[in-house]
Amino acid sequence: MRKQFVVIGLGRFGTSVAKTLTSLGHEVLALDKDEHAVHDIMNDVTQAVQADAREEETLRALGVRNLDVAVVAIGDDLEANILITLMLKELGIPNVVAKARSVQHGKVLEKIGADKIVYPEQDMGIRLANNLIKTSVMDFIELSLDYSIYELIAPAAFVNKTIGKLNLRALYKINVLAIKKSIEKIIISPGPNELIEEKDILVIVSDKKALSKLPD
Q: Given CB 3.0 to 4.6 Å as the disulfide criterion, which of 29, 137, 208, 216 pairs with 6?
């Protein structure tokens, strides 16, 4: 379903979000008060406008209230970040996503009604830490303080062995949710007789501490 987004703040994070949403087929209005930032992205989004989003009349004039999702990507001006988030909610936008620099900042955004709060620096730090611990980790989704879903390249010790023979649940306390054989072939909920081959990508759910116990 094609959606309409406004992305406010065109730093590295906001620019990345705006370009990605556009590449996925959605309409994106990109806003920033910096002329150069707007110029740099104008060919990569539906519309790019130089404007001060702290002015409510500007947001109204641009028809922001009629869009599906607003992303407040401003990170260097906390006052503007909070004020704009509040105005967007008061304008009636159904889904407002705001970038937070800290847990305390996130709590303020939550109090004023932000529907989703993202922590780009924190998330990047977590991803880097996981990759430093286990270089085979390609991606992960945090489920709770203790458990995450990891996408990792099959360790050499697993190659040419079946799920059942490896006894992963008993030995490592992990469950294999899927095996990616290639872009076209993904095996969901592999059975005990499924063979792990070289270059397979495993999608597992695991206790965070258990991850470091896996062989390289």
A: 29
Average pLDDT over residues 79-105: 94
Using DSSP's 3-state secondary structure scheme, residue 128 falls into helix
pTM of the model: 0.68
CATH class of 4-118: alpha beta
Contact 138, 151 (CB under 8 A): yes
Give, rounded to a whole angstrom, the gap between the first and last alpha carbons of the chain: 41
Domain ranges of the chain: 4-118, 123-211
* pLDDT, tens only, 30-85: 999 999 999 999 999 999 999 999 999 999 999 999 999 999 999 889 999 999 99
- From CA 101, how far away is CA 122, in angstroms rounded? 8
Q: Which residue in 210, 137, 130 sits closest to 174, CA to CA?
A: 210
CB 187 within 8 A of CB 197: no
Counting beta carbons within 10 angstroms of the beta carbon of residue 27, is it exposed (0 to 12), middle (13 to 18) or buried (19 or more)?
middle
Residue 116: strand pairing partners: 97
We find that the CATH architecture of domain 123-211 is 2-Layer Sandwich (3.30)
Contact 31, 84 (CB under 8 A): no
The sign of the CA dihedral 180, 137, 101, 75 is negative
Q: Are strands 147-153 and 201-207 parallel, antiparallel or unpaired?
A: antiparallel
Distance of CA 83 to the CA centre of its chain: 24
- Which value, in Å, is the radius of gyration of the alpha carbons in the chain? 22
